[in-house]
Q: What sequence folds into this?
């Protein structure tokens, strides 16, 4: 009986830990949903893209504080025992962070930067961290937002942006092709990225045949006098 009483105490302690984790994750999840709502404006108004990114960053700062609280609740060495509670929410936040970084700088956010923004460590050996799979899943989710952004950018009259998005998504796809994706979830999500690449390529093709994309000037096609004048100026 003493032995089972000890088991019961351990079960109650674990349940208490799980309840604390759920409460913090619920708060983080609520903030992530707000960030999703804030960033929806990029599909309606290109002039509001940067203000939306700034508001999203303020939300990320609040999430940073909550992740630090979460790190104190999770017992040392038991990250993966409880990680199913924050797995999906963290993936979504990484996706939103990646979207903001792309909109601001046109680059792919690194795992280290994503972890820093959320107040997490980059390596498992350092403690409560951003798991590599969570990061990769978040990046793959971001590609879907960018394919939608490409469509809406064209609708809003910004045709040249599609070329930049095409180049970025194509490079992202090439990078993932270098990975040996044995994880079923990652492999399925990567299939979604291939669809996003195809979708943007179709948009670029459609704009090209309609003559709506600005192409570099072909110097050889210019009249000889124009070429000579250009050379004299040089």
A:
């Amino acid at each position: 009986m003493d032995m089972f009483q000890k088991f019961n105490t351990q079960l109650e302690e674990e349940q208490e830990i799980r309840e604390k984790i759920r409460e913090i994750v619920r708060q983080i999840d609520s903030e992530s949903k707000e960030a999703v709502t804030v960033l929806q404006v990029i599909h309606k108004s290109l002039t509001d893209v940067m203000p939306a990114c700034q508001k999203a960053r303020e939300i990320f700062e609040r999430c940073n504080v909550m992740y630090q609280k979460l790190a104190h609740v999770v017992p040392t060495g038991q990250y993966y025992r409880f990680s199913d509670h924050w797995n999906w929410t963290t993936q979504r936040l990484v996706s939103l962070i990646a979207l903001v970084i792309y909109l601001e700088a046109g680059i792919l956010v690194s795992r280290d930067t994503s972890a820093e923004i959320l107040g997490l460590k980059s390596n498992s050996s350092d403690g409560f961290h951003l798991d590599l799979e969570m990061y990769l899943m978040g990046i793959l989710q971001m590609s879907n937002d960018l394919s939608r952004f490409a469509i809406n950018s064209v609708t809003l009259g910004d045709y040249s942006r599609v070329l930049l998005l095409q180049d970025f998504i194509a490079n992202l796809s090439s990078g993932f092709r270098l990975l040996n994706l044995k994880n079923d979830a990652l492999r399925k999500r990567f299939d979604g990225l291939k669809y996003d690449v195809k979708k943007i390529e179709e948009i670029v093709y459609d704009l090209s045949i309609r003559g709506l994309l600005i192409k570099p000037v072909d110097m050889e096609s210019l009249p000889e006098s124009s070429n000579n004048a250009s050379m004299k100026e040089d």
